[in-house]
Amino acid sequence: MSWQKFRSETLEIRDHQSPCTQTVNAVIDTPDLSNLRVLAVHEAGHASCATNLGLVVEAIEIDGLDGYSYVADLDRARPSIQLAILSAGAAAERGLTGRKMESRPHENSDAQRIADVLRLVDRRERAAVMAQAEQMAKRLVWVHRGTIFKVATALLQQCSSAGQPQARLDGDALSDALGGPAVVAILRAAARPRDA
Ligand SMILES: [Zn+2]
What we know:
The chain is of the alpha+beta class. The protein has a single domain (3-191), classed as Up-down Bundle (Methane Monooxygenase Hydroxylase, Chain G, domain 1), CATH 1.20.58. The protein is built from eight helices and four strands, in the order βααββααααβαα. A hairpin with a 2-residue loop joins strand 2 (56-63) and strand 3. Helix 2 runs antiparallel to helix 3 (79-97), helix 2 packs across helix 6 (145-162) and helix 3 runs antiparallel to helix 4 (110-118). It starts with a strand and ends in a 5-residue tail after the last helix.
């Protein structure tokens, strides 16, 4: 089994810094919660899309305003499936929050991974395959928006309890949020008809 780890863009949390020095520390310690919400929806979008396309999501993490979705065997899926899952983060941001994460200082973005996958596709078909994948991501994100908000809310609740942007959703809690253990088990079985 191989593992694919997404790393989302680092969010700018200091954009509301006050010039007033005595308040700067407090402001820096308080993340911009609307950005954190966009990040949680972004990761939930990847995870929900992967689950609905038959892949297994092992965990979702928010760590210091970076986000990660752990999807098993992503690189064994068809390129069109990989592209849809990789597009689903941005599709969820735009479609469900009407926002887009702005600060993207890291090079291992979804865009870079998408470019890597597209290299596996015939050059003449790339534009069409990508357009189809984006459509699929957009549609899945919209159809499963209830699940995505549920997963995002679970992540944000953990951040809230921790008092900082730290969350990890896995095991039963993740299965429940993504649609319940039964659904996940069915999807898991459907994804691997020949592995038994
Ligand atoms: Zn992403």
